[in-house]
């Protein structure tokens, strides 16, 4: 090359140019972070739902109705995926099954064991399950920076929820803790599962819109019976209808369109780690809107999650 501006080529192992790094961040980590920000609003939104609405109903309306919207947005673009062969269909079916299980396990975990334990186990375990899935199915190696960033963020989540004090906090029985923890692990595994399934289909050449439409639309079909059985209180009042519409459109449909865009650029393990920002948003909104309290440890947790997410964003 005749000069520094002539055909800049990266050497093996060199850091990408700043402009390239910014583009990479905007196309991968940033959409996932925006999605996680919207997911963090679900708890505050659910606070305004009728008191008779169960966690199962809230989970089913969020992923069920939202999944149908994603399927409608995808439209006929899902047809090539349906004809893509047995392996692609099995991947989509596994993803849809995870989509159906996740909200039922997640919201039930919080209802049984409390928000703190439910959040820590469900959200904190998902990156671990994601990297295990990638290791077993793809032979991927553990990235040291991912491990460090995820550990920092996960510790931050623990500090956050343990320093987050709400009016309804109370000591849980051992059985409740055990049951809620088990459901939280199911939620973490299924979140990682549908993230991996979607990412795998995209890596095989499918666009994000049909992939998310097919996987979440399939999960919605599986959730509809649950919504029919439990959704009465949500649909019998104006507040319930408003909350249901918001949950289905914003933290579900819009967020998962963005999540799909991010998954086409980053791995499922990175995406699930980035989504650890969700409980931070939820906790801050609970203070600003609901009137709950964050202690010093919780604010330290916010800082740790922020540091971990920043490290992940820089490495993606």
Please describe the topology of this protein.
Elements (H helix, E strand, L loop, with lengths): L17 H10 L1 H11 L2 H6 L7 H20 L4 H4 L3 H28 L1 H24 L5 H19 L1 E2 L8 H30 L4 H23 L1 H4 L2 H26 L4 H7 L3 H13 L2 E2 L1 H20 L1
Antiparallel strand pairs: 1-2
InterPro entries: AA-Vitamin_Transporters (IPR050638), EamA_dom (IPR000620), EmrE-like (IPR037185)
Membrane topology: Multi-pass membrane protein
Subcellular location: Membrane
Can you walk through the features of this model?
By secondary structure, the protein is an all-alpha fold. It has one domain (23-165, 175-315). Helices cover 78% and strands 1% of the residues. It is built from 15 helices and 2 strands. It has helices spanning 18-27, 29-39, 42-47, 55-74, 79-82, 86-113, 115-138, 144-162, 174-203, 208-230, 232-235, 238-263, 268-274, 278-290, 296-315; strands at 164-165, 293-294. A two-stranded antiparallel sheet has the order 1-2. It starts with 17 loop residues before the first helix and ends with a helix. Mean pLDDT is 83; it is low at 1-15.
């Amino acid at each position: 090359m005749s000069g520094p501006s002539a055909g800049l080529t990266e050497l093996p192992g060199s850091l990408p140019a700043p402009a390239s790094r910014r583009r990479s961040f905007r196309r991968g980590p940033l959409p996932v972070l925006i999605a996680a920000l919207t997911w963090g609003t679900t708890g505050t939104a659910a606070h305004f739902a009728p008191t008779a609405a169960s966690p199962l109903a809230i989970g089913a309306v969020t992923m069920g109705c939202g999944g149908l919207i994603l399927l409608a947005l995808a439209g006929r673009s899902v047809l090539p995926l349906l004809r893509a062969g047995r392996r692609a269909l099995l991947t989509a079916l596994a993803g849809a099954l995870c989509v159906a299980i996740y909200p039922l396990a997640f919201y039930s975990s919080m209802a049984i064991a409390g928000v703190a334990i439910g959040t820590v186990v469900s959200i904190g375990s998902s990156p671990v399950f994601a990297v295990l899935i990638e290791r077993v199915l793809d032979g991927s190696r553990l990235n040291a920076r991912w491990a460090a960033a995820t550990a920092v963020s996960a510790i931050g989540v623990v500090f956050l929820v343990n320093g987050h004090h709400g009016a309804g906090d109370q000591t849980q029985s051992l059985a409740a803790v055990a049951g809620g923890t088990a459901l939280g692990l199911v939620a973490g595994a299924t979140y990682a599962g549908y993230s991996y399934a979607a990412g795998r289909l995209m890596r095989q050449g499918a666009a994000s819109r049909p992939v998310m439409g097919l996987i979440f639309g399939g999960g919605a079909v599986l959730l509809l019976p649950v919504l029919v059985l439990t959704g009465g209180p949500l649909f019998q009042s104006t507040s319930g209808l408003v909350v249901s519409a918001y949950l289905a459109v914003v933290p579900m449909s819009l967020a998962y369109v963005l999540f799909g865009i991010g998954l086409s650029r980053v791995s499922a393990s990175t995406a699930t780690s980035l989504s650890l920002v969700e409980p931070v948003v939820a906790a801050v909104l609970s203070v600003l809107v609901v009137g709950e309290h964050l202690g010093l440890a919780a604010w330290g947790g916010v800082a740790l999650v922020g540091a971990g997410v920043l490290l992940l964003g820089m490495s993606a």
